[in-house]
Amino acid sequence: MRLPSAPEVVSTTLHINPRVQLHAEGDVRALVVAGIPVFHYAASDTAADSLARVMLVQDELAGASEVAEAFSLSRMTVYRELERYNEKGVEGLGRHKSGPKGPSKLKDEAAKQMLALRRKGVPIRQIAVRLGVSERGVRSALKRMGYRPEPEPEQQSLLLGVRAATQDEPLPTPQATTDSVMPGDASAAVDETRAVAKPETAPPSVSEPAQQPPKATGEGRGTAEPRTTVAEGERLGAGQAGIMIGTDPWDRTADRIFARMGLLTEAPPQFGDCEAVAGLGVLLALPALMASGIFDVAAKVYGGFGAAFYGVRSVFACLSLMALLRVKRAEHLRHHSPPMMGRVLGLDRAPEVKTLRRKVKELAKRKKSEEFQRELARRRVDADPEAMGFLYCDGHVRPYSGEVDIPKAHVTRMRLSMPATVDHWVNSRDGEPLLVITATPTAALAKEMLAIAREVKKLLGERRATIVFDRGGWSPKLFAELIAMGFDILTYRKGHIPKVRKKSFKKREGVFDGHAVAYSLAERRLTLNYKGGKLVVREVVRLSEDGEHQTSIVTNRKDLSDVEVAYRMFARWRQENFFKYMDEEFAIDALWAYGSEEADANRDVPNPVRKEKEQALREAREVVARLERILGAAAAQNEEAKRPTMRGFKIANASVGQQLREACAKVERLREELRAIPRRISASEAADGEPVVRLKTEAKRLTDTIKSVAYQAETALFRMIRSHYNRHEDEGRKLIASAMQLPGDIKVGVGELNITLAPAASPNRTRAIARLCDELNASEPTYPGTQLRLRYAIREA
After folding, report:
1. pLDDT tens digits, 49-64
2. Residues near 550 by Cβ (< 8 Å), separated by ≥ 6?
3. pLDDT in tens, 9-63
4. Residues 6+ apart with CB under 8 A from 116
5. How much is the pTM?
6. CA dihedral (488, 494, 498, 500) positive or negative
7. Is the pLDDT of residue 244 over 50?
8. How far apart are CA 125 and CA 180, in angstroms?
């Protein structure tokens, strides 16, 4: 007897990317990652199909574009599925009936239940969830029933709700019921958290909060951060901010629920005991970061994000520590464990790449990066006014290779002209950054110097400073304007410079900033003429050691010795070294935000039409020079016996002479045409109808400022370690950078956060870091956002 054949099952494989495939066999679909099936479902299950797409994008197994292309959908469809999943979970992925989901009016029984709940103080949001209606429907029904809420009282501390939830005590009845979220929400949220996240763990006891009004945090807007006292024996350190549910201090489920409910503007740092935390040494820089005022200024300028788990303080702390850990781009966070990075921040996990980018994008939209930078610079000036006596100003060119059409600039290190953006940096006498100003495209330092000087003047006030710059800012008229503004100038001389006789040079020596210097110098008086006046300055000339090269320096300062004039001018290389170090270690050339923004269309730019004429003129002059060389060679070889006269020579070389006359006429014609073309025109005219744009500046300026503060914090540690490490000049910064990469242990004590680092690579480095820890402990710093005093130590090898 022959059995009937089984129906043939068709099997197909859809390759989403090299790692992920979707296998289809009959009515079954299986999602395979790296050869391992991770999810299977029926082909008819549309919700599961959507869930598979959400899993791929959310777990970063595939990009939204790859998923959309594989499933023959648009990217917006995938993003909508992600949004629905984040809002409602798996239920949000199923197909639902469009239109009204229920009756337009509440039934009598539901209305009575709603009124009873409202009189008990249950918020409208929870009533709407329980009855399955909208908040607007609840408010309308309450209004129809004649319910009138009393005036809204001041929001109580969230800790009351937590205490009631953890001790199974009822919340005090609110004096008035309002439409805003009351502490009863927090109680319900904690009850749900205990039931879902920690069903078998007894919550810790939290003592009664102090009877005092809550203080608003700097990052939040109207959010109170309660002060708590912890019962004896609790793992939570004395003075540690935050609400801890369960025995795991790293479990921040409650805080995330509070943020989702709109009851929290930022999760405060909270620590527990843990070992082998990667990169814990970066906390050595926290005292210097706090001394810079970055967290206070960020809170003052940017306020907060509203309801959020990651607030302004968390974001700025994350960006600062990322820079110190040499996480140079946001995408590099993918190579670091979020929970491990979270230990350093006092959170359960650090923000993901997309979260951090979204936060920075939101900050950039507020367009306050200039105010943020200026406030930090003002604090820097007030803290160290002597270092502002000499200010070094120079431009840094950032090459660009993207798709946006931006003007070109000459990149010195590459020796070519290419699309680029120029940033003008102002550094202090010690070479530390003070300001960074994005220059107008195609504008030279001499054109931007007055705008830079005005920004600096806002910071210095009546203090007088010497601006040091290179030949790119040479302009006698500019010198006169800067001196009139209250500045002194120090720069190299530009143009034709008469040589000084060698016998006029004398040996000069001096010690400045701890450095002994010796130069061969000569000095003379120099008068600079410009349209509208003249300026008398000093010219100090230095002779190189081989006696072949002379360097001319110009200044209006008469109180400085010639050797100090030379030293301060040559110290400008500190700024060049700063650019190189920041590019290699902090990636200041890297873009943070992609895309372009509208630029000033009325600014003047070089006329692009002149380029073609100038090139044609150069080629025509080359032809003239070539023909003249031919005639010259013919004249040198002329046989006078055959052609004793010039007339005979011209007849013999008539063809070359005709070509030369035509070439000379062409040169003259091109010169006349070039004179009729203006040298500079407006940017809109040069664009010829195309939009005038530039690269986005807000996010770049913000991140550059944060990296500058990180550099200053590293410099502060470098100065502290000088007396403890013999090779500090050669290896000091490398030692600090390696110390911040050290792993370590965290232990929370009574009012203390103990940081114990693993030994360094060698005993002498370990001893130097130990002395640094002692100096930091003497200042008794606290972790920002808490009252925990930081205590540093390092284990001996």
Report:
1. 888 888 888 877 888 8
2. 497, 499, 500, 541, 542, 543, 544
3. 567 888 888 788 888 887 888 888 877 787 888 888 888 888 888 888 887 788 8
4. none
5. 0.67
6. positive
7. no
8. 9
